[in-house]
Amino acid sequence: MDTTSRLLMLLEVVERGSFAKAAETRNIDRSVISKQISRLEDDLGVRLLNRTTRSFSLTAAGAEMVKKAAELRELLSETIRLAENYHQEPRGVLKITSSTIIGRRYLQPVINDFQKRFPQVEVELRLDDKLVDLVSEGFDLAFRVGEPKDSSLIARKIARNRLLLLASPEFINTYGMPESIEDLADLPAASYSSTSLRVEGVRYIDQNGDAQEQKIKSVFRANDAEVLLEKTLSGTTYVLAPAFIIDNEVTSGRLVPLLTDLHLTEYSAMYAVYPHRDLPVRTRLFFDAIKEHLGKDTPLWENNIPNFDSMYRGR
Asked: Torsion angle of alpha carbons 216, 218, 219, 222, nearest 10°?
């Protein structure tokens, strides 16, 4: 391993926060990382890390080397992107990350078709509901609901994502059809809850055009949208759901939209996120394929909800 590779390894250790996590990312033993960092220090003739049995800290020289390593990684990436754009046919590895439901329902069909068209492109897809560091982990594209907070990344809105209220016929038979937003307060609800987001009410626009929120009685919480749908299909809860998680539950009659005259606020849109404006050919072509697949104006998932345009003040 040369000095450049060891510098990039040092950068990974610092970005991950530990030798163990850097080793896990590379699928190698922790001792290999430690040995290579020691050799880097020998090569440079300066101590880069102050180590203890459980942690480390950067020396002044180490902090400077990490800054240079980040610049080096960017230069190498830019060089590779430039070279790839001279290829007549897209090739190489396309690394994509997304949440599980987006990957399974919307990305995989496009990936299948894309690799038939461009067999020299390999695709690595990571399905993870946790955010990943696109730059340090070398991802070309990420697909997420909601605009990223990291201003250094490029984010493109690719599809809207409206909300709707749903319950099963069994639930309606048990509790009755709600007639107003206030009726929801005492009905059992399923709601999304994670370390970063907790849904505790239904946000809507009232007759005066003012934003309001009706608190809900959440009896079941989960950080997985498909689990919330399954709970709602059991007839024991209603749910406030983003449209992109709906498959055939409405068209089959297993779920029924509630309070469709309500003016619900729009949910976070779906975004494509990437670290550089100068996309390699394979990345740009895949991005275009996803946009075409999802639909230019009306996202394909809205086709799963009959008359959705006239519900919840869609137009």
From this structure: 160
Q: Are residues 170 and 145 in the same domain?
A: no
| Distance (Å, whole) CA 250 – CA 41 | 62
pLDDT given at position 302:
93
By CB atoms closer than 10 A (0-12, 13-18, 19+), residue 109 is: exposed
Considering the domain architecture, whether residues 126 and 189 belong to the same structural domain is answered as: no
CB-based contact 299:162 (threshold 8 Å):
no
pTM metric for this prediction: 0.69
- Say how far residue 31 (Cα) sits from the centre of its chain: 32
β partners of residue 166: 239, 257
Question: Residue 244 maps to which CATH number?
Answer: 3.40.190.10
Domain containing 169: what range?
163-265
Q: What's residue 43's pLDDT?
A: 86
pLDDT for residue 213: 93
Sign of the C-alpha dihedral computed for residues 93, 95, 100 and 103 taken in this order: negative
Distance CA 96, CA 116 (A): 17
Q: How far apart are CA 48 and CA 81, in angstroms?
A: 30
Alpha-carbon span 267 to 276, nearest angstrom: 27
Is residue 258 a part of any domain in this protein? yes
- The token pair at 56 is 């480390």
Residues of the chain with pLDDT under 70: 81-82, 84-88, 314-315
Give yes or no: residues 188 and 133 share one domain: no
Structure tokens at 205: 């626009």
Of 68, 86, 112, nearest to 293 by C-alpha is 112
Whether residue 241 is contained in a domain is answered as yes
Least Cα distance to 259 among 188, 151, 182 occurs for 182
Helix (H, G, I), strand (E, B) or coil at 38: helix
Structure tokens at 222: 């989960």
Tell me how many domains the chain contains: 3
